[in-house]
Structure formats: C-alpha cells, structure tokens
Amino acid sequence: MSIELEIYKSLECLPSSPRLVKLNAIEKYYNIYPVKTMCRILDVNVGTFYNHLNRKVNQKSYLTNDINLKPLVLEVFNKSKQRFGSTKIAQVLKNDGYTISYKKTKQLMNELNIVPILGKKEKKEPAPVESKNRYLKNKVGNNFKRDKPNEVWVTDVTEVTVLDNDFFVCTIMDLFSRKVIAHRVNLKNNTKLIIITLKDAYEYRESPENVIVHSDRGSNYTSYKYRSLLKSLKLIPSYSRTARPTENAVVESFFSHFKKEEIYRQKYNSLEDLQQSIDEYIDFFNNYRPHHHLNGQTPNSFEKNYIIKKGLTSQLSEQSSFVDEIKKTFSSGQLDQKGSKVLL
C-alpha cells in the first residue's frame, strides 16, 4: 500500500480528472512506476495509455521527418531559381529516393513561406487594323466631345429579360448633349428595330443632314437595308472596330446606368410594366439626371443653354416646355408618359 500511496501523491491528479491530464501524468512517470499500477489508481485502461504513448512517438517522428525534409525542399526550390511548385519539388525529391507526397511538400512550402515566382506575359493592346470594307470606317475615333447638336449620334441595342422572355432596347443618343433622342423596344434584335429607331430620331431632330451615326458592327447595323436608309437620309455611317466596346463607350455607359438605376431595381410582371419603366427612365435621364460630362447639367438643360447662347430663340419654345413640364412632373410626384414605343 505504501508504494501505491507514493504513486498517488506523485501523479498529482485524481481518477475524476480529465483523461488527457491522467494520461500525461502516467507518461511523466512511465519509466519510474509500474504502468499497470498507475493506470489502476487513476482508472485508465492500459491499452488507452499505450495508444496515447504511440501517438506521441509517431508525432515526434513526423516532426523529426519534417525538420529533415524542410532544408531539402528549400534546396530544390532555390536550385530551380524559385520556379518549382510543390508538384515539381516532390517529384525531384522522389527521384532522389525520398518519400514525400505533393500534399506534404505544399505544407512544408507554406511553413517555409515560399511560393514559385512566375512572370506574366505583358498584355499588349492589339495594333489597330483598318477594315478593308470601306463602309465600316470609324469616323468618330475617341472624340466623344462635340460642339453642337446633330454632329454625331451614337446607337446600340441592349437585352432585357422579363419573365424569362428577352426584349431588346435600341437607343440613339446625341453626343453633344448625351440626350437620348429615340428609343424602341422589340421582341427581336433585328434590322427593323434599328431602322424604326433611326427614323424616330431623324424626325425628332427635324431631318438633319450629314450627321455621323456611330454604332458597333452588329449584323443589323451593317445590313444593306440600314446602310441604304442612312444614304437616303444623307446620314453618314460610322462603326467601331470589332471587339472594341470602348469605341462606343458613351452609349455602353448609358446602358450600364440604365440597368443599374432602373431595370435591376424593378420587378416586372408584364411587357407593359417594362414599357412604362423604360419611358419613365429616359424622361428622367434627359430631364432630371445631372451628367458629369455636362458640368452637372441635364441633357435638356444643356441644349437649352446652347440655344440661348447661340441666340436661336425660335428653337427655344420646345426646350422651355420640356423644362417646365419636368419641374411640374417631379413636384407632383408623377412622370409624364409620352406613349410607348414598342414593336411587336
């Protein structure tokens, strides 16, 4: 009994102590007192203790193995001039007779805080390639700032999905004032959509001549019907290069704002809802939304100020009515509807 009492005092824990505490206490006196006696005193299964001890031995061997492998991993990494990742390093060490997995190599690389240094190919802007088609020239370039109305119109088509149905919105904008001068909605992205939108803009702007009409190279805009209409109206076609959306950036930017500020904020239950939403937003855009390229003015205000500055008072009445109407509309909390422009 005296030896058991001595063991009990030395272990400094009770049978009710946590199992890991008891296992560590037995391990501490593993080479001093009989294991079976210590296990009986602390109510621990002998097999449980030996499993605990073997795990500790295995962990120590793993740590020793890692310590030996780390300098080898680092050596291979540096010999490769910091090019090799874990797969290549593991393969080199395996070829040299070492037992190591890709996963273990990656772990050791993380502990060593080393990663392969690989260069990246510089992205070069492709050299401009002039189209061999004489009808597809870009007559606008990057000059999006214009000095008077009806110098350049920009146009494009965007897709809007409502109740799993795709609709296509075509707009035409005057670069001078960033004003949307025509828009239409259609179930199909076809030549009919852009032709009728162009006719709307032409009539709204009172049949101007020699206006550059700039678009991308979509099949509708390069079609014979569309180009023939431009020619008959004495309008000048202009096209951005293939895969160069920045060359039609103004109308692309409009569509981005249009979708974020209107389309993605709404839930449409019908085509009529979509029609109303588009009409309201374009009224809002032209009459109420300040534009940073216009020094904070709205498109209609910018055109009105141009007319006053140039003394073109005969053209002012329509612009004034726009301003008065929008003030009255927003003060009453309702937008004026100008009738839908939808092709079905």
Q: What is the 3D shape?
A: elongated
| Class from helix and strand fractions | alpha/beta
Instruction: Using the coordinates shown, work out and report the CATH topology of the largest domain.
Output: Nucleotidyltransferase, domain 5
Q: Main sheet, how many strands, which sense, barrel?
A: 6 strands, mixed
Order of helices and strands: HHHHHHEEEHEHEHHHHE
- The fourth-level CATH homologous superfamily of the largest domain is Ribonuclease H-like superfamily/Ribonuclease H
What is the radius of gyration computed over CA atoms, rounded to a whole number of angstroms? 39 Å
The count of strands amounts to 6
Give the second-level CATH assignment, the architecture of the largest domain: 2-Layer Sandwich
Low-confidence stretches: 319-340
CATH C-level name of the largest domain: Alpha Beta
Helical fraction equals: 40-55%
Strand order of the largest sheet: 5-4-1-2-3-6
Count of domain modules: 2
